[in-house]
């Protein structure tokens, strides 16, 4: 890829899973904390030959939920409940960094409508917020085991991209982010975008993790909304 990666902070230490032929689309995948290499391996198994996966690494910051320990995270977490105070400035800063990455990819030949955001847990939450507030129409969002940050600011905060496709997946036995979070998020999303564009899939017995069935759904979603051109 051409261009100066150093001008885009998220690309400095990102893991990139390249396509096996000319890359005409990109999926930027965010995970919670520092498991990016594991997710890169997972994404390799579901990649399409013309799609590039970019897996940025979260910066190290103090996390309130973990007794202010410094650890990789996209933004601070005060707790995991719908009404807990949120790190508004941190969420918005992280979203702006993702938008800079989108602009970088666009300048290097992959337009925003061929870029999809996705992530697990906090990374999925950040992907949702960024896509909904992005000035560009993106190809879609994959939101795994997560929620919509700053949900009370929507729909006012939305950039108005009503046709954004969204796939939510969640384990029904998730002890960290219970599945009702995704159900409430889904209802909120249906107010922000076209309700027909929001799909929620749940998986019996699945904890705060992923499974082959979920990954198969993700691959199908990517193939549908990022078709070969």
UniProtKB/TrEMBL annotation:
GO cellular component: cytoplasm
GO biological process entries: fatty acid metabolic process
Catalytic activity: S-hexadecanoyl-L-cysteinyl-[protein] + H2O = L-cysteinyl-[protein] + hexadecanoate + H(+); 1-hexadecanoyl-sn-glycero-3-phosphocholine + H2O = sn-glycerol 3-phosphocholine + hexadecanoate + H(+)
SUPFAM superfamilies: alpha/beta-Hydrolases
Domain Phospholipase/carboxylesterase/thioesterase: 36-225
Cell location: Cytoplasm
Pfam (any one): Abhydrolase_2
Family note: Belongs to the AB hydrolase superfamily. AB hydrolase 2 family.
Protein name: palmitoyl-protein hydrolase
Organism: Seriola lalandi dorsalis
Source taxonomy: Eukaryota, Metazoa, Chordata, Craniata, Vertebrata
């Amino acid at each position: 890829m051409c261009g100066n990666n150093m001008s885009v902070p998220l690309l400095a230490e990102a893991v990139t899973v390249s396509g096996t032929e000319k890359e005409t689309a990109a999926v930027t995948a965010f995970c919670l904390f520092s498991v990016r290499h594991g997710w890169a391996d997972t994404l390799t198994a579901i990649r399409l030959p013309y799609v590039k996966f970019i897996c940025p690494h979260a910066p190290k910051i103090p996390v309130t939920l973990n007794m202010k320990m410094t650890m990789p995270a996209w933004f601070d977490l005060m707790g995991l409940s719908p009404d807990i105070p949120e790190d508004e400035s941190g969420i918005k800063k992280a979203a702006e960094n993702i938008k800079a990455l989108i602009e970088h990819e666009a300048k290097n030949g992959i337009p925003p409508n061929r870029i999809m955001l996705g992530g697990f847990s906090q990374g999925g939450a950040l992907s949702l917020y960024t896509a909904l507030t992005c000035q560009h129409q993106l190809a879609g969002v994959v939101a795994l085991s997560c929620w919509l940050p700053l949900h009370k600011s929507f729909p006012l905060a939305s950039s108005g991209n009503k046709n954004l496709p969204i796939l939510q997946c969640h384990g029904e036995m998730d002890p960290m982010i219970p599945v009702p979070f995704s159900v409430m998020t889904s209802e909120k999303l249906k107010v922000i975008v076209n309700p027909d564009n929001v799909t929620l899939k749940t998986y019996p017995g699945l904890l705060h993790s992923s499974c082959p069935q979920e990954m198969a759904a993700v691959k199908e979603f990517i193939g549908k909304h990022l078709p070969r051109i």
